[in-house]
């Protein structure tokens, strides 16, 4: 059963990845993700349905527009393949569970937000703000299906806590991060809270750890200076992923080591 779910989610992820390419390009520019249909940026020719098959079409077209031969960025199949792989990994980790849809949604917005933040150093409200009611609804369905309303309450509390923590950081040091990070923090806090208090602690700390290590690496290799702006959204997402996947066992191990619990 799990194998079937993984396969279905992988295929679904490829399709979602194709849509995310549209989101990544259009949302920062304030454009509709529905209209007009996708077209070649070089000649304006609409993309044919047969040329819109995730990954495969790009390979068959050798990375060029069928009409004008304009190169098509390799990012398109990369985003599609990455989303498919992450959907498959998420389905494998959670299995056919009530909270699987919620975590697939996190993967989808995570891919889009990470790429957008790298491109334009922004986390658009058009993605983060609607995610609050969506995540609350999806986790409510999971809580109703499992009867675990305590985890749902913890998710709401942790979402508020992480939102407040990031807001405090912005108020204390405005140049360190932006309000987009604050809005994303509330969403990630709900997922971490759903996973547990240990996941919340590890996910919160993990974002600053991996982000700090990456920044030090850039400084050491002189690819960035002290005043270089480095998007923090991707590290928040990676930290949250670490918290969800390994946060609880890591936190228990830490408590056993320090407190002998």
Automatic annotation (TrEMBL):
- Record has Repeat as a keyword: no
Task: Tell me the ranges covered by the Prepilin peptidase A24 N-terminal domain, including all copies.
Answer: 12-94
Where in the cell does this protein reside? Cell inner membrane; Cell membrane
Bilayer topology term: Multi-pass membrane protein
Q: Which organism is this protein's natural source?
A: Cellulomonas avistercoris
Q: Which reaction does it catalyse?
A: Typically cleaves a -Gly-|-Phe- bond to release an N-terminal, basic peptide of 5-8 residues from type IV prepilin, and then N-methylates the new N-terminal amino group, the methyl donor being S-adenosyl-L-methionine
What family is this protein classified in?
A: Belongs to the peptidase A24 family.
Write the Enzyme Commission number(s) for this entry.
Answer: 2.1.1.-, 3.4.23.43
The UniProt function text for this chain reads: Plays an essential role in type IV pili and type II pseudopili formation by proteolytically removing the leader sequence from substrate proteins and subsequently monomethylating the alpha-amino group of the newly exposed N-terminal phenylalanine.
Q: Does the keyword rRNA processing apply?
A: no
- Write down the PANTHER family for this protein, in alphabetical order: PREPILIN LEADER PEPTIDASE_N-METHYLTRANSFERASE-RELATED (PTHR30487:SF0), TYPE 4 PREPILIN-LIKE PROTEINS LEADER PEPTIDE-PROCESSING ENZYME (PTHR30487)
Chain segments annotated as transmembrane: 5-27, 76-95, 126-145, 152-174, 194-220, 232-251
Q: Which UniProt keywords apply?
A: Cell inner membrane, Cell membrane, Hydrolase, Membrane, Methyltransferase, Multifunctional enzyme, Protease, Transferase, Transmembrane, Transmembrane helix
In this record, what's one Pfam family?
Peptidase_A24
Report the InterPro entries cross-referenced here. Answer: Peptidase_A24A_bac, Prepilin_IV_endopep_pep, Prepilin_pept_A24_N, Prepilin_peptidase/N-MTase
Every Prepilin type IV endopeptidase peptidase domain range: 105-215
Question: What protein is this chain from?
Answer: Prepilin leader peptidase/N-methyltransferase
Q: Which domain of life is it from?
A: Bacteria
């Amino acid at each position: 059963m799990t194998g079937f779910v993984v396969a279905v989610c992988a295929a679904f992820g490829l399709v979602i990845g194709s849509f995310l390419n549209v989101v990544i390009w259009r949302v920062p520019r304030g454009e509709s993700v529905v209209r007009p249909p996708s077209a070649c940026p070089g000649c304006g020719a609409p993309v044919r349905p047969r040329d819109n098959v995730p990954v495969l079409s790009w390979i068959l077209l050798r990375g060029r527009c069928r009409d004008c031969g304009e190169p098509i960025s390799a990012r398109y199949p990369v985003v599609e393949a990455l989303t498919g792989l992450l959907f498959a990994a998420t389905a494998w980790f959670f299995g056919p569970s009530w909270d699987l849809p919620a975590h697939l949604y996190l993967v989808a917005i995570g891919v889009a937000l990470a790429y957008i933040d790298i491109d334009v150093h922004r986390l658009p409200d058009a993605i983060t703000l609607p995610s609050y009611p969506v995540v609350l609804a999806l986790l409510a369905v999971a809580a109703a299906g499992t009867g675990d309303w305590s985890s749902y309450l913890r998710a709401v509390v942790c979402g508020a806590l992480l939102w407040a923590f990031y807001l405090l950081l912005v108020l204390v040091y405005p140049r360190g991060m932006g309000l987009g990070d604050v809005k994303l923090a509330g969403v990630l806090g709900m997922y971490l809270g759903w996973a547990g208090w240990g996941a919340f602690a590890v996910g919160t700390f993990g974002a600053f750890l991996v982000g700090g290590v990456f920044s030090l690496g850039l400084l050491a290799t002189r690819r960035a200076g002290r005043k270089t702006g480095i998007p923090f959204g991707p590290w928040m997402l990676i930290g949250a992923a670490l918290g969800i996947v390994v946060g609880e066992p890591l936190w228990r191990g830490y408590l056993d080591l320090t407190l002998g619990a």
